[in-house]
Amino acid sequence: MQSSRSRQWLLGKRTVATYISLYYYGTFSAKYLHIEQVYAHASMLLAGVLTFSGALLVGALSDRVGRKKLIIISRLAVLVLAYPSFWLLVNHPHPAVLLLIVFVMVSFTTLGAVPAMLVISELFPKRIRALGFALVYSIGVAIFGGFAQFFATQSIVWLDNDLTAPAWYLGGATLLSMLALPFFSDVKRLKE
């Protein structure tokens, strides 16, 4: 059984990518790039619809191909696309670009988030599964997800008003989340 610490890293750092993809791109576009607020809200709506519908598909896919493979593909894609996504948005601030970036990034974060949640719940025995998952999830969201937008915004200030700075935070958190991957095996269901 993997350590609680590696489970928190797995979920917590993935939470940064989810919060940046779901919420921050829209907020960032309205605040810094002066894209109309209606498009920022539309990007968040798109993110929600993609996450909801994608979760159903990815859950089924992870049962067939394995959880770890999807998590690795997702993390690598987010890592590679973090900087280009912010660069493209900063240099071509248009609602269509925002929606395209949100579509791509949310698709990849969903691809990794669903199997990560399944892995975490499957690590706990049946009698404490709900409690274990709730604790790990709450700690991951509270610590990493809750502060994602704050650190993304502060990174702009820390890097001398470089509007692509949130990409370094997103990429760094994604890279850190990958450190947990060697510490778990790809199981679909643990024996009860």
Description of the structure:
This protein is mostly helical and 192 residues long. The protein has one domain: MFS general substrate transporter like domains (Growth Hormone, Chain: A, Up-down Bundle). 80% of the residues lie in helices and 0% in strands. It contains 7 helices and no strands. It has helices at residues 4-32, 37-65, 67-91, 95-122, 129-145, 148-158, 165-178. Helix 1 runs antiparallel to helix 2 and helix 4 runs antiparallel to helix 5 (129-145). The longest helix has 29 residues, at 4-32. The protein is globular, with a radius of gyration of 17 Å. The chain starts with a helix and ends in a 14-residue tail after the last helix. The mean pLDDT is 87.
Task: Please report which band the strand proportion falls in: under 5%, 5-15%, 15-25%, 25-35%, 35-45% or over 45%.
Answer: under 5%
Query: What is the count of helical runs?
Result: 7
- Sheet having the most strands: none
* Low confidence ranges: none
Pfam families: MFS_1
InterPro entries: H+-coupled_symporters, MFS, MFS_dom, MFS_trans_sf, Sugar_transporter_CS
Keywords: Cell membrane, Membrane, Symport, Transmembrane, Transmembrane helix, Transport
Family: Belongs to the major facilitator superfamily. Metabolite:H+ Symporter (MHS) family (TC 2.A.1.6) family.
